[in-house]
Structures are given as C-alpha cells and as structure tokens.
Design goal:
GNAT_dom, Bact_Acetyltransf, acyltransferase, 12-stranded mixed beta sheet, Acyl_CoA_acyltransferase, Aminopeptidase, Mycothiol acetyltransferase, 9 helices, globular, alpha+beta, 2 domains
Length: 336
Amino acid sequence: MTTRDLTVSPFDPAAASPEARLAVGRLLVACHAFAYPDDPPLLPEREAVSLTHVTPGEATAHFVVWDGEQALGWGSLDYHLTQNRHAAHARLLVHPGQRRRGLGRELGRALEAVARQEGRRVVTFATTSQAPAGEAFARTLGAEAALPMRQSQLVMAEVADSRLDAWTTRPDGDPYRLHVWGRVPDEFLPRTADMMMVMNTAPRGDLEVDDWTITPEMIRAWEGMIGDAGEVRFLMAAEDTRSGELAGYTEVFWSPDRAALVYQGATAVRPSARGQGLGKWLKAAMLRHVRAHCPGARFIRTNNANENAAMLGINVALGFTPWASLTEWQVRLAGV
C-alpha cells in the first residue's frame, strides 16, 4: 500500500467504537515501547481510555491514519477555550514501522488546519532524545527549541536514610505541616487550586504562553482521569498553620500495572515561602511515602527546565541523574 492510499481522518474518541479506540491505544503503546524499550510497557486499554479525556474548558481535535483496522499514525491538538487563546499544544505519533512515508507531514497539516481555524498563532509540542526522529521532524517544520529540559531518574534504593532524615527535620516551632492526599479534601480544594498556580513562576524559556488559571473543577476532572487511567496520584502539600495557606506542594503518579516506575509531577513553593527548606522537605517526605505506599517502585523520573537551577539543584542533591533530554518546541503560524 502506498502513502497515497492512506488518508488522515478526523477521529472522535468519545463517539468511536471501543475497537477503534483500542487500535489507537495499540499505536501509542508501540511508539512508547520503541522510544522507551526498558520501561514497563504501557497498556493499550488504558491508553484507549485516555484518548477520551478532556480538561474542563479545553477542546481536543484528533486525527488518525488508518490502514484497514490498524492505526498507523495519530495526532491531537489541545487548546483552551478561554485561556491562552493564541496557543495550542500538539502531539503526533507514527508507528515505528511506518515512518518516512510522509504520514507525519500529513498529520501535521491536519493539526495546523485546526490551529488556524481556531485562531491559534503558536503551536507547541515536545520531543525526547529517546526518539531522535522527533527533533529532526521539528526542524523540518521550522520550529524553535523554546524550552530545553532535562529528564532525570532516581534509583530509590540508593538514597540514604540519613539524607532523608536531614531534609525532613524541621526547626522547633515550625509553623508548617504536611498533608498527603489521593483525592484533595473538599475543604482544601480552593486552596489547592490557588497553590497549583505557583507553577506559573516556573521557567518557560522562550515559550509564548501566558499564566494559567487552575480551578477546583479542573482538579476534580484530573482526579477522575487519573483514576480512569489506572494510576494513583499522591499530592503532598505544606500548610502554613498561621494562615491556612498552602505554601508548596509536590505530586507523583504511579500505576500498580507498571509498578517499577514512578513519575514525579510538579514541585513548587510560593516565592514568599522560599529559603526555608520546604522544597527539600516535600521531596524527601514524598520519597518516604512512595517507599511505603507504592510496592515494587524502584525508580522516580522527573523533568526540569535546564534553566531551573533551584529545582535541578534539589534533585541532584537527592540523587537524580541525567536520563534523557526533552525539548518543548513552538511553531509560529504566519498569517494568524
């Protein structure tokens, strides 16, 4: 079959048959296994479910290249309807055995058409050094490497208890206390949304994006999506007992089906509370929590902007070492 026989088709995961969603899930699994052959494998059923997830206030357009009932390529464009209305984020994958046939270019054109239709002048997407073809493709698009990042990995067994003891020891009369939640309690939900927006202070490199507003509705939706994906999310927050304000947080994601690997999500401390060791405390306390509540976990993987010296310093001191490089790219669409 030639490339001319293959067409890019719009795809609605919510309306598609379970078999069609599963076919795309198998494609996502194959692409991940090609880039990360030593990782615990993804599960196609879980990936199929994730295709239906949409954050409140956002829209997603999907496209698939079909060869009969097999999905050879997939792309999606996420864009918010009320925030950052100039920008969109793309994902694009082609089956490892079907590359260099122009399928990526055709999917890219379909995503660009949606971006233009929605008035988005900036499209961002990410690549990893684990799949070098992604960077080469980005350069053919004239994309700008706007935010270089380091992906680091921690071998949990190599972290000394003495280091964790030092980082979790707090001064007498310390006004901060830690909470850890799977589902954020209702009374903390507005405060958690406010705290999460501290990530707006994280380095963005040259990305042309504005601050994001996080809402309680978003958090509840994300919690539901995490559960649908078979994952466990632990969020640990530091509360200032003098005011009740949440001063910082860290979060991890773990799946019992892929038990060896834990993904570190955001870690942030409010600028007004920095310099008190809260970041180290949160990271060390979370590591102990993972050891106790994630059986079989061996590694923690995290991403940091290369320019985020403060968080990189904490991670290196804890024992994270370079594992891969990631790049957040952006394409400016002329005439939008």
